[in-house]
Amino acid sequence: MVGGTGLYIKAALYDYNFNDEDEVYNYDKYSNEELYQELLSVDPNTEIHPNNRKRVERAITYYRNHNIPMSENIKSEKLLYDAMFIGLTTDREVLYERINRRVDKMVEEGLIDEAKSLYDLKIDSRALLTPICYKELFMYFEGNSTLEEALDLIRQRSRKYAKRQYTWFNNQMDIKWFDVDFDCFDNTVLEIENYINSLKD
């Protein structure tokens, strides 16, 4: 199983119990600070960052639906399958440079025109405004930043997202990391194969 959203992988492989959110709440009228204070009032042990609005909203909704703080909802660490977690990594500076180049390539392939066509539709959608890229370019279209400032923000947020992914995987899974040989990826595959075979001996 390969995936970029770690929670999906964990939910599929561990003994998770999911609770139905039987009531939906609208928090649009609240600021980030107001929402975070509301979360602290019902879950003072939360580890959610105040600016992670999506998770703050989810935690408040969880409390309202189940009357227990989300931080007390302990997920099972029991694996359902005989699984091995393999992670691909590289030097941090190399990673950040590759992320920067990826943003440049997205621009070359039409990112700005794509974002402008969506902006012109005036769609007020959280699904549209949550991912990195669109909301930063929307700021440019609205005259609140220059194009270069918007692109720099996309690069910065993409690098921070990669850092959070590392932290999440290291905290959630017993993962074995392998440095990628970008000149010959077959070497990376061989190293992983040798590692797996060594565990069988």
User: Poorly predicted ranges (pLDDT <50, ≥5 residues)?
Assistant: none
Shape: flat
Q: Helical region count?
A: 9
Q: Could you tell me the mean pLDDT?
A: 88
- Radius of gyration from the CA trace? 21 Å
* Quaternary class: single chain
Helix content: 55-70%
SSE run: HHHEHHHHHEH
Strand order of the largest sheet: 1-2
Which class do the helix and strand fractions yield?
mainly alpha
Distance between the termini: 24 Å
**What is the percentage of strand-forming residues?**
under 5%
Let me know the number of strands.
2
Largest β-sheet summary: 2 strands, parallel
Outline:
The chain has helices at 6-13, 32-42, 53-66, 92-108, 111-120, 126-129, 134-141, 147-172, 185-200; strands at residues 85-89, 175-179. It has 201 residues and is mainly alpha-helical.
Task: Give structural notes.
The chain has 201 residues and is mainly alpha-helical. Helix content is 57%, strand content 5%. The chain has nine helices and two strands, in the order αααβαααααβα. A two-stranded parallel ribbon has the order 1-2. Helix 5 (111-120) packs across helix 7. The mean pLDDT is 88.
